[in-house]
């Protein structure tokens, strides 16, 4: 049991609860490593499509405007930090600090999705260039929305006093899934706007 | 010890009340044993479906002309669904059956780490199977299990879309199942069982699960693009609009080459168990076998383009040729370790052992034809011919399916409490083995003579070999029913197995057959070496199992008529 990644409060959990916690942590890690591969796959697709074109963006196609998406990306990074602060806060029983951090993370996440939705609808149609852009942004947004919804549910449960210092796995799980959303996006951002 | 006979199981009827009934399999259950049996029955059902379809294919190929199926379209649909069903609805779920049933038992655990998720993963499979079959009502896919565009974009009917959705569900199911396996193996091993004390089947499942979680997301990506091309007007795979058909081939094979190891790795694990236990010898090279599975998992990600030698940029051929030849090395390590295991062993030619030996001989042929295909100059000639069909069936039928039969004869007693009939098992083997060989070996020749795969009409000079192949395949198809009949019959009249009919040392044999809902009374203690046969300690351990869970040898009244149980000391 020494391998358990436990803080001092988790010592109060029963053996079965500890095992369950440990299993969930491993599962989320494996899930993150696994599912990020879909995003890697779409990046590979993007790169292969690019390599078929004499230039990127293809001749005559207007490139992407990076300013708004860059702001959105910075906001998203910030939201990961806030989610992390929220998770830490609930681990030491500071419910109100949790709530304010988590709320801010949700707002930033929502703003990110809104900005990218705007970019998605306004990108000029241009065959492969806009197709792969739209697929990547939409594919990511689906994850952001679903996991954002999970964060929202966790927030509501926390408001109702559903989590304690010892038992708040859903907060940890939701935060880790949100990190996943952020990391996946940063990879996409680099490919779409920088490379 | 000169003569060694198989231990004959006892007649003590146990756990009748705990036996899982067929009706239980139709209901939602989170018990890994029920789920394992659900996978088992579902995959055998699809084995029969996929087999039935290909019998029609072989019937068509009895003559060079198009006759039975009446149209190339029908013919294409038949072999496409045959391949897809066999891979995604038979072999992969069948390993799910053994993994789910056996893994917690082998680890001395009460269940998998996430029982609910486990059930959910299973219940994705039946709707996926239904979608696949429904394709026939809306224009079934014609593009083969590999679904290359433009066949899959411009030519197949809407069944192709259902096919893609179905595969999406199956992929999700296998990822969720694999996460469960990894977590269970990492966290739920009993005290005293490090990674290197695990049964080799657990190692194989671990390697398989790692491949599943890393590779299957690529299938999800490819399918997403395919569906978009078909229904949302994108043209990722359409060269007329700037798309690229090689995009599909790259992404698909980045998943599907690792996937061939998804289909066979648990079979490797089964063979390690069966060869050691049925020849009463410690496994030779435990670590080599365990770690070579991981090596296969790793190298398997670097070889995908050997499926594209004829379509790839020529300068990439040599690197992929080299990696493809390298991957034969860890497989070779296993084969030699298996030979070392049975060498000078007290081999019992049980049905399980016969199929394991059948696996050894046939899988090696498949491995050799694989290395031949990995050689670019040879592949350029036989790519897309029957030679490839031969190769893949030697590794998947002679490999995975033979291993699955070995697993069935070996673990059916654990799963049902009844022995399978050994006589029927041997009849099954001695029909299946030659029928398999004569179905698939001549395909090498057909391929080298130039007969393309996936055709209903062929040059008349190929007919003689095709008739041989078809007739053998009919026999092979029929021989399957001997095994199915044996299973159904043995459920009722099979001899009661007792906890440990093969006198094995892994934990699943320390509890009753079938195990109670909670698997074990108390925490079972693993034997320090799962294959440590032939020692005094092993003997004492086996004695202890019997005194605790009841005998696995016939009671005295019956022994007179039957051979002695296995000699003590093994
Ligand atoms: C010694 C290791 C192996 C090597 C070097 C190897 C090599 C190859 C090559 C080069 C091809 C492509 C032939 C072509 O299309 O022209 C091929 C096809 C195939 N191999 Fe292997 N193989 C090996 C083992 C396996 C194993 C263990 C399996 C499955 C359990 C497997 C399953 C398949 C399948 C299903 C195909 C046909 C795919 C299709 O439908 O086009 N191979 N192999
Ligand atoms: Cu391959």
Number of domains as seen in the coordinates of chain B: 1
3D shape of chain A = elongated
Q: What are the secondary-structure elements of chain B, in order, as H or E?
A: HHHHHHHHHHHHHHHHHHH
Q: Output the CATH topology of chain A.
A: Four Helix Bundle (Hemerythrin (Met), subunit A)
In terms of quaternary structure, the protein is heterodimer
In CATH terms, the superfamily of chain B is Cytochrome c oxidase-like, subunit I domain
SS element count, helices of chain A: 5
Overall, the morphology of chain B is globular
CATH superfamily of chain A: Cytochrome c oxidase, subunit III, four-helix bundle
How does this structure look, described?
- The complex is a heterodimer of chains A (195) and B (570).
- By secondary structure, chain A is an all-alpha fold.
- Chain A has one domain (2-194): Four Helix Bundle (Hemerythrin (Met), subunit A) (Up-down Bundle), CATH 1.20.120.80.
- In chain A, 76% of the residues lie in helices and 0% in strands.
- In chain A, α2 packs antiparallel against α3 (95-122) and α3 runs antiparallel to α4 (128-159).
- Chain B has one domain (2-562): Cytochrome c oxidase-like, subunit I domain (Cytochrome C Oxidase, Chain A, Up-down Bundle).
- Chain B is 64% helix and 0% strand.
- Chain B has helices at residues 22-25, 32-60, 72-106, 115-123, 125-134, 151-155, 159-187, 200-231, 245-278, 286-299, 317-326, 328-342, 351-374, 376-382, 386-416, 422-449, 463-493, 536-549, 556-559.
- The longest helix of chain B is centred in the N-terminal third of the chain and has 35 residues, at 72-106.
- Chain B starts with 21 loop residues before the first helix and ends in an 11-residue tail after the last helix.
- In chain B, 56% of the residues are buried.
- Chain A binds chain B through residues 19, 22-23, 26-27, 30-31, 33-38, 40-42, 44-45, 48-49, 52-53, 58, 127-128, 131-132, 135, 139, and chain B through 113-114, 175, 178-180, 182-183, 186-188, 213-218, 220-222, 224-225, 228, 234-236, 241-244, 246-247, 250-251, 254.
- The structure holds protoporphyrin IX containing FE and copper (II) ion (CU).
């Amino acid at each position: 049991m020494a391998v358990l990644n436990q803080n001092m409060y988790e010592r109060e959990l029963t053996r079965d609860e500890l095992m369950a916690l440990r299993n969930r942590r491993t599962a989320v890690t494996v899930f993150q490593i696994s599912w990020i591969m879909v995003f890697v796959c779409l990046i590979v697709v993007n790169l292969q499509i690019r390599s078929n074109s004499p230039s990127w963006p293809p001749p005559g196609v207007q490139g992407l405007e990076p300013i708004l998406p860059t702001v959105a990306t910075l906001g998203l990074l910030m939201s990961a930090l806030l989610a992390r602060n929220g998770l830490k806060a609930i681990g030491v029983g500071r419910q109100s600090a949790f709530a304010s951090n988590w709320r801010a993370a949700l707002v930033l996440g929502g703003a990110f999705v809104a900005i990218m939705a705007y970019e998605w609808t306004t990108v000029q149609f241009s065959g492969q260039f806009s197709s792969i852009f739209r697929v990547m942004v939409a594919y990511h947004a689906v994850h952001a929305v679903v996991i954002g919804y999970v964060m929202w549910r966790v927030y509501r449960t926390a408001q109702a006093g559903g989590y304690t210092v010892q038992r708040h796995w859903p907060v940890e799980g939701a935060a880790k899934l949100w990190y996943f959303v952020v990391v996946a996006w940063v990879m996409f951002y680099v490919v779409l706007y920088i490379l | 010890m000169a003569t060694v006979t198989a231990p004959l199981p006892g007649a003590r009827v146990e756990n009748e009340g705990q036996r899982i009934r067929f009706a239980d399999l139709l209901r939602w259950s989170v018990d890994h044993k029920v789920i394992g049996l659900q996978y088992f029955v579902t995959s055998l059902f699809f084995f029969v479906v996929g087999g039935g379809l290909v019998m029609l294919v072989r019937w068509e190929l009895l003559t060079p002309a198009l006759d039975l199926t009446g149209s190339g379209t029908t013919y294409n649909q038949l072999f496409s669904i045959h391949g897809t069903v066999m891979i995604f609805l038979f072999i992969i779920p069948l390993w799910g059956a053994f993994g789910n049933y056996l893994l917690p038992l082998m680890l001395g655990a009460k269940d998998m780490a996430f029982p609910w998720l486990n059930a959910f993963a299973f219940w994705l499979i039946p709707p996926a199977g239904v979608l696949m079959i429904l394709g026939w009502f809306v224009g079934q896919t014609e593009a083969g299990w590999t679904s290359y565009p433009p066949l899959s974009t411009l030519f197949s009917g809407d069944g192709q879309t259902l096919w893609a959705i179905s595969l999406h569900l199956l992929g999700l199911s296998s990822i969720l199942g694999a996460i469960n396996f990894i977590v269970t193996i990492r966290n739920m091993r009993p005290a005293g069982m490090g990674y290197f004390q695990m049964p080799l089947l657990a190692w194989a499942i671990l390697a398989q699960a790692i491949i599943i979680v890393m590779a299957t997301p690529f299938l999800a990506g490819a399918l997403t693009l395919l569906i978009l091309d078909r229904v949302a007007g994108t043209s990722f795979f359409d060269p007329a609009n700037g798309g690229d058909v090689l995009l599909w081939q790259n992404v698909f094979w980045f998943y599907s080459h690792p996937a061939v190891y998804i289909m066979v790795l648990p079979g490797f694990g089964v063979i390690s168990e069966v060869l050691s236990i049925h020849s009463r010898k410690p496994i030779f090279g435990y670590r080599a076998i365990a770690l070579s599975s991981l090596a296969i998992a790793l190298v398997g990600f670097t070889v995908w383009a050997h499926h594209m030698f004829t379509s790839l940029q020529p300068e990439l051929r040599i690197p992929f040729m080299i990696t493809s030849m390298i991957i034969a090395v860890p497989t070779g390590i296993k084969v030699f370790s298996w030979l070392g295991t049975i060498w000078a062993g007290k081999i019992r030619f049980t049905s399980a052992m016969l199929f394991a030996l059948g696996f050894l001989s046939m899988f090696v042929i498949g491995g050799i034809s694989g290395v031949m295909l990995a050689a670019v100059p040879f592949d350029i000639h036989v790519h897309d011919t029957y030679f490839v069909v031969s190769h893949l069936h030697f590794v998947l039928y002679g490999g995975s399916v033979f291993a699955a039969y070995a697993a069935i004869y070996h673990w059916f007693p654990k799963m049902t409490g009844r022995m399978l009939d050994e006589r029927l098992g041997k009849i099954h083997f001695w029909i299946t083995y030659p029928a398999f060989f004569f179905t698939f070996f001549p395909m090498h020749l057909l391929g080298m003579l130039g007969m393309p795969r996936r055709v209903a009409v062929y040059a008349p000079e190929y007919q003689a070999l095709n008739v041989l192949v078809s007739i053998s395949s009919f026999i092979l198809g029929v021989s399957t029913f001997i095994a199915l009949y044996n299973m159904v019959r043995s459920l009722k009249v099979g001899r009661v197995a007792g906890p440990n009919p093969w006198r094995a040392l892994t934990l699943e044999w320390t509890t009753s057959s079938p195990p109670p809902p909670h698997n074990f009374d108390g925490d079972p203690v693993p034997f320090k070496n799962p294959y440590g046969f032939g020692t005094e300690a092993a003997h004492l351990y086996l004695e202890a199992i019997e005194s605790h869970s009841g005998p696995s040898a016939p009671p005295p009244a019956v022994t007179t008529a039957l051979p002695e149980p296995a000699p003590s000391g093994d």
